[in-house]
């Protein structure tokens, strides 16, 4: 089940289109000899800059890094911790949109507000699923403001 809305790439703002194109471009750098599944992600920082990441796998599978986490970790390493959007590009068989894994949802929730838009698409960049942190990761530990006791 998807929560969010499916929109045409062409209807998106130019800065989001650019972010998606950057995700598709960095996806080509994916190091994924084990899964053969390439993923690219990009975040737009509040200063307007873009940070990109691809998945980087390891012979010891748990040591692999996902594209979304790579993009966020790189941005934070550059001193950027606030974002206005995240885009992810991957081509999964039989599944239209690849959504971030559970660990990445946790990482996203650390730095993204509840309403930061997240755009998921395939490398053909035709249809795009627009969602947000709170849809992907409700009841985020430590960051769920509406369950605060005071
Ligand atoms: N992967 C990502 O990088 N992001 C996702 O949203 C889904 C999964 C990577 C992890 C692993 O390298 C490969 O895709 C297969 O799961």
From TrEMBL:
The keyword Metal-binding applies. This enzyme scavenges exogenous and endogenous cytidine and 2'-deoxycytidine for UMP synthesis. Transmembrane segments: none annotated. InterPro entries: APOBEC/CMP_deaminase_Zn-bd, CMP_dCMP_dom, Cyt/Deoxycyt_deaminase, Cyt_deam_tetra, Cytidine_deaminase-like. Signal peptide: none annotated. Its cofactor is Zn(2+). It comes from Camponotus floridanus. Belongs to the cytidine and deoxycytidylate deaminase family. One of its GO terms (molecular function) is cytidine deaminase activity. Keywords: Hydrolase, Metal-binding, Zinc. Its EC number is 3.5.4.5. This is Cytidine deaminase. CDD domains: cytidine_deaminase.
């Amino acid at each position: 089940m998807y929560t969010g809305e499916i929109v045409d790439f062409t209807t998106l703002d130019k800065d989001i289109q650019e972010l998606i194109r950057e995700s598709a471009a960095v996806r080509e750098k994916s190091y994924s000899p084990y899964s053969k599944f390439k993923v690219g992600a990009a975040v737009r920082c509040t200063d307007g800059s873009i940070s990109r990441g691809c998945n980087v796998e390891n012979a010891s599978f748990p040591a692999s890094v996902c594209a979304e986490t790579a993009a966020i970790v790189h941005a934070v390493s550059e001193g950027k911790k606030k974002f206005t959007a995240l885009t992810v590009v991957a081509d999964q068989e039989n599944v239209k949109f690849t959504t971030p894994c559970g660990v990445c949802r946790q990482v996203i929730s650390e730095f993204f507000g509840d309403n930061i838009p997240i755009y998921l698409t395939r490398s053909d960049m035709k249809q795009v699923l627009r969602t947000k942190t709170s849809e992907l990761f409700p009841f985020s530990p430590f960051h769920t403001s509406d369950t605060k006791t005071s």
